[in-house]
Structure formats: C-alpha cells, structure tokens
Amino acid sequence: MFIRRSHVGAAIAALLLSGCSSISNTADSVWSSLSGEDSSSSSNAKASSGGGTVEAIPPSQSEFNPQPTLGPGTSTQTTAAIGPSTFAPTPVTPGSPTGTIVGAKVQSLRGDVQRLEASISQQNGTLQQVRQSMAQNAGNYFTLVGSINSRLQVGTTPGNPELLAQWNQAQGALDRMNDDVAKLNSLANQVAQDSSLASYILQSIRAAYGLQGAVEEDHRQLRELEAEVQRNQVPIDTLLNALSDDIQRQGTYVANERSNMVTLSLAIQNGQLYGPSLASRGFVSTPMGAPSAAATRERPVPGLAERRPLVIIRFDQPKVDYEQALYTAVRRALDRRPDANFDLVAVAPNAGSPAQVALHSDASKRNAESVMRSLTGMGLPADRITLSATTSASVQANEVQIYVR
Hints:
The protein is of the alpha/beta class and 405 residues long. The protein is 51% helix and 10% strand. It is built from seven helices and seven strands, in the order E-E-E-H-H-H-H-H-E-H-E-H-E-E.
C-alpha cells in the first residue's frame, strides 16, 4: 500500500541513523564536560617535610559559625522534575521596505513569522505553567498518600475518619493532575496548529521567489525569513515531542493511581495496609533482564530486507494525507493479530553529498516521529512501536515504512 502525504507539522527531533544495507539505531546524545580549577590561597606558615612543601590554609569565617546556614538557592526539599526543557523561538530579523510589490509581500510574511514566534513563546510559557502545576499536585498527592500508608502500616481503626478525609484530599489532587493532562492535550493541538502555520508560511515564502517586480534586497530578505522559519520548526517539533511524552507518562500514571486509590480506600475501611493495585502489577514489576519500554522502542530491527512492509508513506509532496489509510491498515493488522507490534523505519535517499544525505536523514526521522505520534494518537501503545532509520539508494524521496512484527 502506498500513501502520499506531507508532514503537516515538521516532525520531531532525530532518533536513529544507519547505513544502506543495514539498519541501526542511534540516539542523539548530549555530551557535557565539567572542568574545574583548584584554587589556593597563600598561607601564613609553611613547613618542610621530606623535601616537600605543605601550605597551611587558615579557616574561613564560615567555619567559625556555630549554626551552619544554607546558601541562596539551596533547598532542603526535593521535587520531581517534570520536563525541565524550554523551547524558545528564533527572533525575527528586521527588514526595511523596498517599495516594490514583492517588498510589500515580504513585510506581510515577516508579520506572519512574528505571529508564529509569539505563539511559540506563549505555548512554551503555558507548558511550563502546566508542568509546575503537575509537580505541585503530584507533591501534594504523594504527601497525602504517604501519610495514609504510614498510619495504616502502624495500625489504625477501620474506617478512620481522619484517613478518609486525607483520602478525599488525595483524590482531589489526583483529579487536578488529570485536569493537567487535559490541558497538555489542548496545548498539543495548539502547537500542531503552529506547526501547520510554519509549513504554510514556508511555502508562501518559497512561492514569493517567483513573483515579478522584485529587487535583490527582496530576495535577500526572503532568504532570511526562510531560514528563520526553518530554525523555528526545531522548537515546534521538540515541543510536540515533549508534549507527547508528558501526556503519555502523566496519563498512564494517573490511570494507575486511580486503581491504587480504590485499593487504598478498601484498606482504610478495613484498617489494614494492602499495597498497590493488582491492575498496575504489569507496570511496577519487570522481570529480571527484560528490556524497558524505551529500550524496546530504540533497539535496531533485524531482518527487514526479508519482510514486506504493511504501509509505505512517501513524503514527496508538501502535503500528504496518510492518517486514514494508516489507521485502516493498522486496524486490519490488529484484527488478524491482536498482539502485533509495529516497526517504523525512516528511509532517506542515499544520494548527493554527505551534507545532503544528513539533511534527508534528519527530515526522514522527523517524518517517522510524526507517524508515531499519529499511531499513539489512534490509541496504539508506544511500547508496541519500534523506531529505526536507514538510507537507501533505491528510494527517490523520504519514506516511512511500517512493518508488522
């Protein structure tokens, strides 16, 4: 089955690279180096021992303080960090009107780019607020549930009204966490609209090159705007990926904790500590040596050359509508094999200079991330999807091939 469609919002950050004949999977890594220099102060006294020199450093004023103090920014409380990343857009380069018809079009496009950047900044601010709310609600929930479990562990009366009141408060905190997940879903829709707007602006800029009556300054400003829109697609794609991860993680957590709250309610009624709900045993108990969900998603997929793809999506046009056909194909595959898993392979043309191959590979991997978001949005669990990437001399445009495993 061949489907044609474009990537509506530029796809998400790179995952995997490989050669023509084999498929490999590499994750982008950020390497940081830490360096420090030992500082020493001159001493008031020196002593020689065995030919070496020992410097005696006098104690600082802080060491004479009988009550130790915490410096600024130090906290004795730790909070679980939920998605610490921020996503800042690239500022628009100002340009002077040229007085031509094309120059007027350039000014209009510059206004569109400015609105896009303002929207990205607003979505980023909203995400940080929702994450802060999630962290606060999660902290309140953990505190209340921990207090209840402590009382149950040491023993208490059945149906203790104090524990019932704490249970109701914990249920309220869990409801607010569920509201945060709904806000993340709404935000993801808004960011997807920004992604579509960025693609539209990029197409409009490229179409403006063909307008008559332009001067060289008009084309120079068009090139600047085109580069800025392409740079702004990076925070949009990364923001979409972060939202997808947050929604999946928080949604799964809230669903599991609702089951735990039912078990905890029964424990309060009986005055005995039971533990987590049996419904969440599959999430909290992992057999020794079994790969995690993330490892399953990122491992290479062997033997694809001998397999027939279920779907091939070719991204050779600015816009490709593939969701309906993809949903139909995956639904039929699940009807035949309800336990089926799916391998998504980003295939890029292996033609041109190394820089061109790298650009095609990056775009192909973003396409695969977009297809994966579509599948998870259709309800397919992310741990049943494996991502990998390769290059091939037999393809003319970026493709995403889906295999049933």
